Amino acid sequence: MKDPLVQLYKGAKPSRRNFLAGALAAGGATVGATMAKGQAAPDPAITEKQPWAQFLGEGVDANPYGVPSEFEAHVVRRNVPWLTADAVSSVNFTPLHEMDGIITPSGLCFERHHGGIAEVDPAQHRLMINGLVDNPLVFTMQDLMRFPRENHVYFLECAANSGMEWAGAQLNGCQFTHGMIHNVMYTGVPLRLLLEEAGVKTTGKWLLAEGADASGMTRSIPMEKALDDCLVAFKMNGEALRPEQGYPVRLVVPGWEGNMWVKWLRRLEVGDQPWHHREETSKYTDLLADGQARRFTWEMDAKSVITNPSPQAPITHGPGPMVLTGVAWSGRGTIPRVDVTIDGGITWHQARMSGPSFTKSMHRFYYDFDWDGRPMLLQSRAHDSTGYVQPTKDQLREIRGENSIYHNNGIQTWAVNERGEAENVEIS
After folding, report:
1. Do residues 316 and 309 make contact, with C-beta atoms less than 8 angstroms apart?
2. How many angstroms separate the CA atoms of 337 and 351, rounded?
3. CA triple 298-215-295, angle to 5 deg
4. Most buried of 57, 192, 335, 395, CB within 10 angstroms?
5. Cα separations (Å) of 254 from 204, 220, 228, 299?
6. In 247-375, which ranges are E strands?
7. Closest Cα partner for 318 from 2, 6, 92?
8. Nearest CA-CA partner of 262 in 245, 276, 275
9. Sequential DSSP letters for 11-57
């Protein structure tokens, strides 16, 4: 006997309505026939009382701080051990393929450390402003909490995100190719209010942010940016910063590379020129093919990635209706449009944007279509509010060469086979 679903779809284009109607019709016919003949039992997931409905569950105090379901235990940050010599100065990756919407749960935000996680006592922590100011100041955490505060949703992306892919496809999974990013709501004090309190001298053109961890992280920031949209943040997603995210206080530099978002912030020094420390000379500069290096490439260009399907999120339901989804972001504004292709760029389709559109934040996109079961080459292409269009990797290499690490925002390609399995490849 031929499969009723095969019969139903023979010569017809699959659709979500036909698929569901056919599944119900086929299922009903099959169940009825088998029950009449006594050859099979009904689905016990429907007809039998499940274990969780037979016993009382845990009470309200079982987990004073909520935890995910045990069935979601696989949804975690992951690292790539061979990337760095030691985990103390290393990175792990956000599981983008397991998420939806635009907000990253606090426990899944990627980590990047240069001297391990500093365990800072907030009662003993101080933030100092010195240098070219009228009134050098020292703030306790209680002092900071008395200033007017704001809430903003921003992405934080490491400049090295996708950096391993410059010379070709390497890491198989969007968690590893694009997972050095998260998107949360920050609560904090506008940096300009603290600088106004100190009184920046007219000669003060730059700001040096310094962290309290063992690495003594420092970065130079132009005063124009410091007075624009930077925050001194003490909350993320409504709760205190996690230790790995800079508890009790960090700098937020919207749209700019994550290395500038100094964690465990202890000092802000006003100066008349950049300091040219390690993180802006030896590191976080872009080496070109001719040996010259671009410096002060702070802004994160528009970028996107399809998260499902992807190597860690294969298609498991077979041909028929499916939802393709991903995220896009830009350090220069919003993402009004994302294009997707399933045939490697031969034809492009405008994706459906869903959810809030905040400046310098992630945006969620979807493309709903009927998969015919044939191989696909999936790509997404982001457009930001300035008119900038995400380039191909070949277009980037024409200018930057292959001997680079930072600011790789090239279009990502996933090759999907007939079984729904996806692989990281390059075609453009």
Report:
1. no
2. 7
3. 25
4. 335
5. 21, 15, 10, 9
6. 250-252, 265-271, 286-287, 293-294, 303-308, 320-329, 337-341, 349-350, 352-354, 363-371
7. 6
8. 245
9. TS---HHHHHHHHHHHHHHHHHHHHHHTS----HHHHSPPGGGTS--
CATH topology assigned to domain 303-425: Immunoglobulin-like (2.60.40)
Per-residue pLDDT of the chain (428 residues; tens, 9 = 90+): 443 333 333 444 555 555 555 554 444 443 333 344 456 789 999 999 999 999 999 999 999 999 999 999 999 999 999 888 888 999 999 999 999 999 999 999 999 999 999 999 999 999 999 999 999 999 999 999 999 999 999 999 999 999 999 989 999 999 999 999 999 999 999 999 999 999 999 999 999 999 999 999 999 999 999 999 999 999 999 999 999 999 999 999 999 999 999 999 999 999 999 999 999 999 999 988 888 889 999 999 999 999 999 999 999 999 999 999 999 999 999 999 999 999 999 999 999 999 999 999 999 999 999 999 999 999 999 999 999 999 999 999 999 988 889 999 999 999 999 999 999 999 99
Q: Structural domain boundaries of the chain?
A: 4-47, 81-294, 303-425
8 Å CB contact between 133 and 200: yes
Give the other-Cβ count within 10 Å of 185's Cβ: 17
Residue 428 DSSP class: -
Strands 127-131 and 265-271: parallel
Which candidate, 389, 405, 222, 209, places its Cα nearest to that of 296? 222
Task: Provide the CB-side half-sphere exposure for 13 (13 A, CA).
Answer: 3
Q: Rounded to whole angstroms, how far apart are CA atoms 415 and 87?
A: 32
Question: Cα torsion for 364, 367, 373, 379, to the nearest 10°?
Answer: -60
DSSP helix, strand, coil percent of the chain (3-state; round to 5): 20, 30, 50
In contact, 173 and 311? CB cutoff 8 Å: yes
For residue 305, give both structure tokens. 């990635």
Question: How many other C-beta atoms lie within 10 A of the C-beta of residue 124?
Answer: 9
Q: E strands, 10-89, where?
A: 78-79
Name residue 410's amino acid.
G
**Integer-rounded Cα radius of gyration of the chain:** 25
